């Protein structure tokens, strides 16, 4: 049987971890969703850049503006680089934060005995087993980790030199968001957490 002191530490660790999960999860979902319009804009600019490359300005009424093609190219490149900077420097770290926050809460919990750890007395029904909540935190951390790696791989692979790759980036992000929908298990953990936090 777990000593009362260890049970108290586990209860406190669970309360802390579940509160962090509750605070972080909606922001994580919002960040995933916020990246899609940025990537769609990026794809549109890349499409415009590709179209501009195909235009023979010397054969159009714009031929008098000899610097126009270069200025247009630089403007489109600057627009693509600005969008990539926002995605990489703001959105990507925001996707990493929940993984690190939940992971930090798991370290002391696992040190108490891992996901099989359970208190001397299980919470009374209908509250879930404490071990299930630890597993729920592990599932959430794993989901955040996988989605972050997929997002990082995509965003770091994009370049203004590869306009074709940027045009299909929104579809690639939609697939990442579909992977993120596996967070339904996280929603279940959050529902259980509501009862646990009220009971303890």
UniProtKB/TrEMBL annotation:
<dbReference type="InterPro" id="IPR029159">
    <property type="entry name" value="CA109-like"/>
</dbReference>
<dbReference type="Pfam" id="PF15011">
    <property type="entry name" value="CA109-like"/>
</dbReference>
<protein>
    <submittedName>
        <fullName>Uncharacterized protein C1orf109 homolog</fullName>
    </submittedName>
</protein>
<dbReference type="GO" id="GO:0005634">
    <property type="term" value="C:nucleus"/>
</dbReference>
<dbReference type="GO" id="GO:0005737">
    <property type="term" value="C:cytoplasm"/>
</dbReference>
């Amino acid at each position: 049987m777990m000593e009362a002191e260890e049970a108290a530490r586990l209860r406190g660790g669970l309360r802390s971890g579940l509160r962090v999960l509750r605070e972080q999860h909606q922001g994580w979902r919002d960040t995933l969703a916020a990246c899609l319009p940025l990537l769609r804009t990026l794809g549109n600019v890349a499409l415009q850049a590709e179209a501009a490359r195909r235009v023979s300005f010397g054969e159009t009424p714009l031929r008098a503006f000899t610097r126009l093609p270069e200025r247009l190219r630089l403007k489109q490149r600057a627009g693509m680089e600005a969008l990539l900077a926002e995605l990489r420097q703001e959105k990507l770290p925001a996707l990493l934060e929940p993984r690190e926050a939940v992971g930090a809460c798991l370290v002391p919990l696992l040190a108490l005995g891992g996901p099989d750890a359970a208190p001397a007395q299980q919470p009374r029904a209908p509250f879930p087993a404490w071990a299930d909540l630890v597993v729920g935190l592990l599932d959430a951390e794993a989901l955040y980790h996988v989605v972050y790696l997929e997002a990082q791989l995509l965003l770091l692979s994009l370049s203004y030199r590869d306009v074709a790759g940027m045009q299909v980036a929104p579809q690639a992000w939609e697939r990442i968001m579909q992977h993120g929908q596996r967070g339904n298990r996280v929603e279940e953990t959050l529902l259980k957490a509501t009862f646990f936090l009220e009971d303890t």
